[in-house]
Amino acid sequence: MNKKEISEIKKQFTPNNCAITRICGCYVDGEKNKKTELKEAFLSLPEEEMFKYFDIFRKTLSGTIGKNLINMEFPLDQEKEGGTQEFLLRLRSSKLQDNELVESFYDKIIENYDYGENYYIILIHAVYDIPGKSTDGQEMFDASDEIYEHILCSICPVKLSKAGLCYNAETNNIEDRIRDWIVEMPDLGFLFPVFNDRSTDIHGVLYYTKNAEELRSTFVDELFGCNTPLSAGGQRDSFNALVEETLGDDCAYDTVMNIHGKLNEWVDSQKDSPDPVVLTKSEVKRLFEECGVEDEKLESFDEQYEVTAGGEKSSLVASNITNTRRFEIKTPDVVIHVNPERADLVKTKIIDGRKCLVIPMEDNVEVNGIHVRMPADESAV
Q1: Helix (H), strand (E) at residue 278
Q2: pLDDT of residue 221
Q3: Torsion of CA 114, 115, 116, 122, to 10 degrees
Q4: CB under 8 Å to 183, separation ≥6 — which residues?
Q5: Element (H or E) spanning 235, and its range?
Q6: Long-range contact list for 327-334, CB < 8 A, 24+ apart?
């Protein structure tokens, strides 16, 4: 799913567009005991509760694709009878009316979700009547010929509110506040099936994680049977290692700057696209070639890529491996942050026999927030 498709589904989580038919919930304590459960038609909830749930559902579809939101495909064996995808299909087809299936789903999460405190599992079923679109992109609500039936799960930590004082309007006093158990925004979640090309795609799931560096591979493996991709940080570290291993002793400053400059150009050229810039093995190799890496250095590229990036079919999200907002140049004692558009200002130069980074200093220079005047020439230093 891309940004536009995710946004289209998020828009259904409003009172006017609501397509949710049923909601189920299970509150689990820190000892993995089911404390209470909810099963009812979503529209029967009080209006204020509905708004709170809408916030949770929208959050489950929020974040950056490739970091917090990850598209995963089911392996073929998981689409057979008894597989993870087949189980989720049965759960969706039951419209959450099959209590035994719902309980099995809760049990799977409780067994594999490694969380030592209280949490709330929320599961909804929804049916979105997909409006057609005219040639100019305008929605035609009377031209729908397909529905998107799906389930969305949100796993939310439940924590005690902070202790403190409050004003009691009934007694007109400042008093000790009663601490409540508060359902927080989701830690994990998923949407199944995915909504690709504005149509149902039962071969994939959209996975959400609040912490982009904790993808919880055991949870993903047991619940979906999918291979957990590298986290955003893992992709960055793997790419850095690939650059260093490929270039070896020739890992020069200018070459690395060229690689990141080219990456930023690719990201910028597709900034209006709903899809993130994703690099396959062949595209990473082409990037190195365009940045002047010699053929001799690329002889072992394929092997290095599979070792560092996680396999032949693995890919890297460009925004995970480069920073489009700033370049960072770091030595043991100095860290320099540079606007990527002006990275050309930083040069390397031998001065008095020492390797130096040289940065032109014009007007508008600050030292700890204080505007300073630069000397007119060397003799004034």
Answers
A1: strand 278-279
A2: 93
A3: -130
A4: 52, 56, 120, 156, 157, 158
A5: helix 232-247
A6: 327/257, 327/260, 329/357, 331/357
C-beta of residue 146 within 8 angstroms of C-beta of residue 130: yes
Decide the pairing of beta strands 146-160 and 188-192. Answer: antiparallel
pLDDT of residue 312: 65
Contacts 24+ apart (CB under 8 A), 67-70: 67/212, 67/232, 67/317, 67/319, 67/320, 68/208, 68/209, 68/210, 68/212, 69/1, 69/6, 69/206, 69/207, 69/208, 70/206, 70/207, 70/208, 70/209, 70/215, 70/229
Residues 127-185 have pLDDT tens digits of 999 987 765 556 665 556 789 999 999 999 999 989 899 898 989 999 988 889 999 99
d(CA 363, CA 365): 6
Q: Which residues of the chain have pLDDT under 70?
A: 134-144, 311-312, 376-381
Distance CA 69, CA 210 (A): 9
Beta strands 194-196 and 199-201 are antiparallel
Q: What are phi and psi of 188, to 5 degrees?
A: -140, 165
Q: Percentage of the chain with pLDDT > 70?
A: 95
- Report which DSSP code applies to 355: E
Q: Omega before 360 cis (within 30°)? A: no
CA distances from 78 to 125, 126, 293 (A): 22, 23, 41
